[in-house]
Amino acid sequence: MAGSGENFNSVPREILSGVRVYPNPAEVARAAARLFVDYAWQAIAKDGQFFVALSGGSTPQLLFGVLASDEFRGQVDWAKVHVFWGDERAVPPTHPNSNYGMARRELLVRVPIPEGNVHRMEAEKPNIGRAAHEYEEVLRKYLELDDRGFPRFHLIFLGMGPDGHTASLFPGARVTQQTSRWVSTPMVAKLNARRMTLTMPVLNAAHRVLFLVVGAEKAETLRTVLGGKADPPLPAQMVQPREGLRVFLVDEAAGALLAPSALDRPTTPIFRPTGTGRGKPGKRS
After folding, report:
1. Quick check: 36 and 155 in contact, CB under 8 A?
2. Taking each helix axis from N to C terminus, what angle separates 58-67 and 99-106, rounded to the nearest 10 degrees?
3. Is the pLDDT of residue 269 over 50?
4. What SS3 state is found at 222?
5. Which residues contact 191 (CB under 8 A, 6 or more apart)?
6. pLDDT of residue 272
7. Band of pLDDT at residue 92, cut at 50, 70 and 90
8. Taking Cα atoms as reference points, which of 1, 8, 57 lies closest to residue 210?
9. Bridge partners, residue 183, by sequence
10. Which of 48, 145, 187, 262 is found 20 to 30 A from 172 (Cα to Cα)?
């Protein structure tokens, strides 16, 4: 795990608890890569495997490039890593908008991860609802459950849109904590397209959720998500792991409106034991 610690030439500023600000998107990506390495080692040491859900977008693309680099690639025991996705567009994997396709190009073909450890959402299938049920069965096969019967990832990567959406859970959609589904297929009205996405209870069952947020256009929304009020709450606000840790890695532009008086406070490590360990397999109620 050598080399996975902080670069003290560019120490981040922790504005709020669990909210770290970096100079630019490239530094956000490097910080996320360091935490990926740390969390993978912790999970493998404890559970023998590391279960992580990836996201799409430009910042994860930078992250994948860092993880696939000579510096980071050898720091992960890829044979014990299983990758899943938080959401996917209804396009084939060769489409330029495919989250899986981007991760494959930038990361998966460049690291020694077994093909059987890659579990993509097949959202391009004609019956996307059935495909969502099939993905739930994939989750059931590999992940253990929390005390409410939801699958528990070691780590879920999330982004946030300027409207406060995360994964493919958009404002105004039926985003609810009470759903019993693990995977849903909402129609995104403003895009006139179906998506496949993990549901809010699955996000909130995770050991750790890591938000990557960059860009000035997200600054106002980020301030609302972290300390403001919205009625109804924005989807990104609703991500509150029950027994886990929520961390935001943001760039200066996205964090520009956050607690300026706290900018110079010393930082503390943001990886630490969470919850009481993984749940036991069981059936959903």
Report:
1. yes
2. 30
3. no
4. helix
5. none
6. 39
7. very high
8. 57
9. 198
10. 145
What's the CA gap between 214 and 218, in Å, rounded?
Answer: 7
Phi, psi (5° rounding) for residue 116?
Answer: -70, -10
Which residue in this structure is represented by tokens 């995360």?
A: 166
DSSP 19-88: EEEESSHHHHHHHHHHHHHHHHHHHHHHHSSEEEEE--SHHHHHHHHHHTSHHHHTTS-GGGEEEEESEE
Band of pLDDT at residue 17, cut at 50, 70 and 90: confident
Identity (one letter) of the amino acid at 191? Answer: L
User: Which domains are delineated in the chain?
Assistant: 12-260 (3.40.50.1360)
Residue partners of 227: CB distance under 8 A and separation at least 6: 16
Least confident range of 14-23, 56-65, 261-270 = 261-270
Residue 60 near residue 50 (C-beta atoms within 8 A): no
- pLDDT mean over 179-188: 90
Which H/E stretch holds residue 183?
Answer: strand 183-184
**For 185, which DSSP code?**
-
Point out which residues pair with 88 in neighbouring strands.
196
* pLDDT at residue 263 greater than cutoff 60: no
Q: How confident is the model at residue 260 (pLDDT cuts 50, 70, 90)?
A: low
Q: Is the peptide bond before 232 cis (omega within 30 degrees of 0)?
A: yes
